Amino acid sequence: MKHIHLETVLLVFAKEDGQSDAFWWACDRAGFRCNIARTPESAIECFLDKSHEIVVIDGRHSLYFEAEAVCRLIRATKRSEHTVILDVVPQTPSGQEEPSVLPLLCAGFSRRYVENSSVSACYNELLQIEHGEVRCQFKLRACNSVFTALDHCQEAVEITSENHVIQYVNPAFECMMGYHKGELIGKELTDLPKSDKNRADLLDTINTCIKKGKEWQGIYYARRKSGDSIQQHVKITPVIGQGGKIRHFVSVRRPHSDNNKQVHKINKDGEHSQSESHSLRHRDRRKDSVDTRSISSHGGDAPSLQNRRYSSVARIHSMTIEAPITKVINIINAAQESSPVSVAEALDRVLEILRTTELYSPQLASKEDDPHTNDLVGGLMSDGLRRLSGNEYVFSKSTFPNMSQSQLAIPVTLNDIPSAIADMLDDEDQWEFNILELEAATWKRPLTYLGLKIFARFGVCEFLSCSEATLHCWLQVIEANYHASNSYHNSTHAADVLHATAYFLRKEKVKGSLDQLDEVAALIAATVHDVDHPGRTNSFLCNAGSELAILYNDTAVLESHHAALAFQLTVRDSKSNIFKNIDRTQFRTLRQAIIDMVLATEMTRHFEHVNKFANSINKPMAAIEESSSNSEGSDSEGQASIRNSPENRLLIKRMMIKCADVANPCRPLELCIEWAGRISEEYFAQTDEEKRQGLPVVMPVFDRNTCSIPKSQISFIDYFITDMFDAWDAFASLPGLMEHLSENYKYWKGLDDMKCKSLRPPPPP
C-alpha cells in the first residue's frame, strides 16, 4: 500500500504480549515506522525525539503505569498537538455495561481500541486512523504553512468575507497601507476611507464582475491611513465555498509602477473597462441593516492568528460546515489577535464554553441544593443512561380501531353533538374553558368533540378539501390511540393542548404572522403530539431498552414516534385520510410543519427554542418599538417584517406548541391543581416501575411516599415556565395567563411554606 507520508507509530506497552505484537506486525504490514517504549519516561523521551503521528498506549493494566497519566504527559508537550493517541482497553465482560469513553477523551485520548490481538484488526484500525484523523492533521499543518507563507509574501494580501468584512491582512498589506491588522480585522470595507481619484462607476463595474464569481484585476487608488492616495495593481478572486456560493474574496495588491498611464484591463468576459479601482463591494444588506451573523465566514478559511494562536486556528480549520457558531468563533479569534494577554485568556475560556454542546442549558446548583429541579431536568431533558437491560418496555401495537360508530357513539358532524356538550363548547374560545368538565361529559373522549368544533372554526376541512365525516373519522382514530389509562398523557391532555393552540392562534400578533397552512399544521400537530404515549418518559424508555428507543437511536424517541404514527394512522385508510385531496407539494409542506412542531415538544432543546425566540423575535421587536416611537406606521411594518420571515414563523410555531403543551401552570387554579396531580401520579407510577424492574430511577424525588408536589411545581415553573411564558407573553400579549401563573405560583409557595406536600392544604382542625 502506498502512503503520501510514512507515518510513525509509538507503542507504549510495559510487557510484550500478543496485543503489542499484533500492533507491531500491523505497522509492518502498513509500512509504518514503529517504536516501542516500556515506561512512561522512555515513551516521553522517544516521542519528543520522533514526534510520532500515532501513539498506542496499553490501558488494560494499571500495575505498571496509568494509561491516562501517560496520555496527559504526552499531551502536555507542544508536539502532540497533531498526534492521534489510541487507548487499548480490555473487553467488557458479557452482561456488564459498556463504560463511557468520556474520561478517556478528557484525558487526551483521540479514540479507544478494544483489546483484539488479531493482526488484521490492528491493521484495519491503523488504516482508519491514517485515512481519518491523521490526514486531517496533515491538512491543519498545511493550513498553518499557508498562512506562514502569506505572512512572508511581498505582495499585500487581504481576505474578506462574502459580506465584505476584513478577515485577514498580511504584514505586507499593513506596511503598504499604514494600518495595523488589529485596526482592520472585523471591519467592513465600506467603513474605511476611500480615495477620490477612482472613476465613479468603476466600483459598480467591479462589483458586477466579482458577484458573478469572476476574477477582476486592474488599477485602483487606495487611501492610506496617513490620508495620501496610492496607485495599486489589484487582483480580486472570488472563492467558492460551502453550498457552491461565494464565501470569500481574496485581494492581492502591489504598487503600480507608472502613475501616469491609463491602464485598461480585460476581464474574463472579454469586456474592456478603464481600471482604477479596488474591490469596494456592493453592499447587499437586507433592509439596510447589518447582519452581524455574517461578520465572518467559513471556519476553514479563517484569518491567520499566528503561531501563538495556532490551537484556536486548528479548531476553526477542523470545522468543515459553515454554521453560526463557526462565525462566532471566528470573530472571537479575530478579537484575540489584537487583545491584551488578560483579555485573550478570557476569550480562550469563552471558546471552551462555546465548544460544549449544552449552550442553552443553565448551570444548576448541586443536586443537594435543588433535587426537584435536578430530577426534573434529568427526567425531561436527557435520554437516560443509555443502559440496555433484559427488561424490555414495549409499546402496545397501535392499530386502526376496529369499532363501529354506534359503539363509540361519536357524532358525524357538529350538528349531531348533544346539546349539553354543544353548550359547553360555546365557551371553547375562552382561556378559562374547563376541559375536565368536557372530559366527564364525553366519557373521556373530549378530543373528537373539541376537534370538530375548533377545526370548523378555523376552516380546516375547507383548506384540506375533505368532508366533515372524514375529519370526524380521523379524530376518532387519533383519540382511540391515546391511552385512557394514563393519568396525564391521554386524549384530554391532547384536547387541552389543542384548545391552547387555538387560543394562541386567535391572538392578533400570532394571527398576523402565520398563514392558513401554518394554522392548520399547528392544530393537527397539537391533536397528534402525544398519540400512543405510554405514560413514561424518554429516559425510562432508553434505560429499559424499549423497541422504540432502539428504533430511534435513543434520540427524541417519543416525539419521533408520535409524529410517525400520526401519519401512519392517517394514510392507512381512505375514510380517515384528511390529506387525500391535497396536492403533493402542499402535503409535503404541511407534513414538514407538523413534524417540526411535534418534535419541538421534546424537552432536550427547550432552552435552545426559547433563546432563539427571544433573540430573533422579542429583542428585535422591542428595539424597533424603542427606536420608532414617533412613527407608528414604520414601527408596525418593521415588526411585521421580523414576524413574517420564514425562519421566524418557524420559531413562532415551535414556541406556540411548546407553550400550549405545558400551559397547565397558567390555567385557572383548580385546573392547575388537577393537572399537577395527574402528572405527579404518572411520575410516581414510573418510579414504582423503575424500582420493580431494577432500572435507574430517573426522578428519585417523585417517590409517592416522600414527594412534595408543591416543591416540584415550584421548580418546574421556575426552571421551565417563567422565562418561556415571559417571552411568549411579550409577543402574543397574554395578561390573563400571566396573572393565573402568578396566582398559582403563590398558591404552591404557600403550601410549601406550610411544609405541606400534597395538592391542597390540610383541612382546618
Automatic annotation (TrEMBL):
<dbReference type="InterPro" id="IPR002073">
    <property type="entry name" value="PDEase_catalytic_dom"/>
</dbReference>
<keyword id="KW-0597">Phosphoprotein</keyword>
<feature type="region of interest" description="Disordered">
    <location>
        <begin position="251"/>
        <end position="309"/>
    </location>
</feature>
<dbReference type="Pfam" id="PF13426">
    <property type="entry name" value="PAS_9"/>
</dbReference>
<keyword id="KW-0114">cAMP</keyword>
<comment type="similarity">
    <text>Belongs to the cyclic nucleotide phosphodiesterase family. PDE8 subfamily.</text>
</comment>
<dbReference type="Pfam" id="PF23198">
    <property type="entry name" value="PDE8A_N"/>
</dbReference>
<comment type="function">
    <text>Hydrolyzes the second messenger cAMP, which is a key regulator of many important physiological processes. May be involved in maintaining basal levels of the cyclic nucleotide and/or in the cAMP regulation of germ cell development. Binding to RAF1 reduces RAF1 'Ser-259' inhibitory-phosphorylation and stimulates RAF1-dependent EGF-activated ERK-signaling. Protects against cell death induced by hydrogen peroxide and staurosporine.</text>
</comment>
<dbReference type="InterPro" id="IPR000014">
    <property type="entry name" value="PAS"/>
</dbReference>
<feature type="domain" description="PDEase">
    <location>
        <begin position="413"/>
        <end position="755"/>
    </location>
</feature>
<protein>
    <recommendedName>
        <fullName>Phosphodiesterase</fullName>
        <ecNumber>3.1.4.-</ecNumber>
    </recommendedName>
</protein>
<dbReference type="InterPro" id="IPR036971">
    <property type="entry name" value="PDEase_catalytic_dom_sf"/>
</dbReference>
<dbReference type="InterPro" id="IPR057304">
    <property type="entry name" value="PDE8-like_REC_N"/>
</dbReference>
<dbReference type="GO" id="GO:0004115">
    <property type="term" value="F:3',5'-cyclic-AMP phosphodiesterase activity"/>
</dbReference>
<dbReference type="GO" id="GO:0046872">
    <property type="term" value="F:metal ion binding"/>
</dbReference>
<comment type="pathway">
    <text>Purine metabolism; 3',5'-cyclic AMP degradation; AMP from 3',5'-cyclic AMP: step 1/1.</text>
</comment>
<dbReference type="InterPro" id="IPR003607">
    <property type="entry name" value="HD/PDEase_dom"/>
</dbReference>
<feature type="binding site">
    <location>
        <begin position="489"/>
        <end position="493"/>
    </location>
    <ligand>
        <name>AMP</name>
    </ligand>
</feature>
<dbReference type="Pfam" id="PF00233">
    <property type="entry name" value="PDEase_I"/>
</dbReference>
<feature type="binding site">
    <location>
        <position position="713"/>
    </location>
    <ligand>
        <name>AMP</name>
    </ligand>
</feature>
<feature type="region of interest" description="Disordered">
    <location>
        <begin position="624"/>
        <end position="643"/>
    </location>
</feature>
<comment type="subunit">
    <text>Interacts with RAF1. The interaction promotes RAF1 activity.</text>
</comment>
<feature type="binding site">
    <location>
        <position position="661"/>
    </location>
    <ligand>
        <name>AMP</name>
    </ligand>
</feature>
<feature type="compositionally biased region" description="Basic and acidic residues">
    <location>
        <begin position="255"/>
        <end position="279"/>
    </location>
</feature>
<feature type="binding site">
    <location>
        <position position="661"/>
    </location>
    <ligand>
        <name>Zn(2+) 1</name>
    </ligand>
</feature>
<feature type="binding site">
    <location>
        <position position="529"/>
    </location>
    <ligand>
        <name>Zn(2+) 1</name>
    </ligand>
</feature>
<dbReference type="InterPro" id="IPR023088">
    <property type="entry name" value="PDEase"/>
</dbReference>
<feature type="binding site">
    <location>
        <position position="530"/>
    </location>
    <ligand>
        <name>Zn(2+) 1</name>
    </ligand>
</feature>
<dbReference type="InterPro" id="IPR023174">
    <property type="entry name" value="PDEase_CS"/>
</dbReference>
<feature type="active site" description="Proton donor">
    <location>
        <position position="489"/>
    </location>
</feature>
<keyword id="KW-0378">Hydrolase</keyword>
<feature type="domain" description="PAS">
    <location>
        <begin position="149"/>
        <end position="213"/>
    </location>
</feature>
<feature type="binding site">
    <location>
        <position position="530"/>
    </location>
    <ligand>
        <name>AMP</name>
    </ligand>
</feature>
<feature type="binding site">
    <location>
        <position position="530"/>
    </location>
    <ligand>
        <name>Zn(2+) 2</name>
    </ligand>
</feature>
<dbReference type="GO" id="GO:0071364">
    <property type="term" value="P:cellular response to epidermal growth factor stimulus"/>
</dbReference>
<dbReference type="GO" id="GO:0070374">
    <property type="term" value="P:positive regulation of ERK1 and ERK2 cascade"/>
</dbReference>
<dbReference type="GO" id="GO:0007165">
    <property type="term" value="P:signal transduction"/>
</dbReference>
<keyword id="KW-0479">Metal-binding</keyword>
<feature type="compositionally biased region" description="Low complexity">
    <location>
        <begin position="625"/>
        <end position="637"/>
    </location>
</feature>
<feature type="binding site">
    <location>
        <position position="493"/>
    </location>
    <ligand>
        <name>Zn(2+) 1</name>
    </ligand>
</feature>
<dbReference type="InterPro" id="IPR035965">
    <property type="entry name" value="PAS-like_dom_sf"/>
</dbReference>
